[in-house]
Prior knowledge:
- Residues 29-115 form the Acyl-CoA thioesterase-like N-terminal HotDog domain.
- By secondary structure, the chain is mainly beta.
- Helix content is 10%, strand content 42%.
- It has a single domain (6-117, 130-276), classed as Porin (Beta Barrel), CATH 2.40.160.
- It contains three helices and 15 strands.
- The protein has a 15-stranded mixed β-sheet that branches.
- Strand 13 (238-246) and strand 14 form a beta hairpin.
- It is globular and about 50 Å long.
Amino acid sequence: MVVETSYYVPEGPGSDGFEYFRPTSATISPWSSDIQHGGPPTGLLMRALEHAAPETSMHFTRVTTEILGAVGLEMNRVRAQVIRPGRRISMVAADLEVVQPDGSYRPVARAVAWRLRAHDTSTIAVRPQSPLRPTPEDIDVKVGVTADSSLGVDWGTEGFIGSTESAVTVGRLGATPAVWLRPAVELVAGEKISDLQSIMTVVDVANGLGTRLRPDEWTWMNTDTTVHFSTVPSGQWLGIDAELAAGSDGFGATFADLYDADGFIGRSAQTVLLDGR
């Protein structure tokens, strides 16, 4: 088995304004060996958003990633732009496309983010949840999440899930534990991953962590991931305390409280398509 050291290998910028990337096997979804898990594309789009708006006078406060179709393993390309400039409020968007057999490119994911002016409001700062404890420094860290083969899906040793590190602690929202996660490989080969890129690469996993459904009986594919930040996150680890609300009409939603080592940093929400296997 090839041990990958990154999710993407850069192939350089094109004259069309896109950056080109070749996905590695570390991006592969546990549901199918032909497509990427939603995590690495979300991280790659976050990287594009940061590069399009690098000024430090504003902070990312909400990031929404829409999955428009299966993200294939052939050549990927990404382009970002500021679509609403401003000194106090701005919006940035990024698009991810995948090459098709005829050489054309198809849009498969899009991210849109709000950025707000940096301003000192420490005198009124409130975090609605106490810090998630213990942190990964105080509990066992392992590769992947779980490798229970009886469930019919490998959640622990292969593809994207096998490229992460995790540490389990007590959850607060539902019947599932909270989990600390971080990528164990680079997002783009040869680059240091930023804190936001690290967090956005693993936050998609909330959908799997918050469910009590068996993956050999059900699938719960998310079509989107929205993260609202209440403070600037710090560090590569993301603590996820998630719960899936499964409806009776074929869909549901996963909600999660998010933490860094210092405490609560925001919440995520994902729309979920429910299907029997």
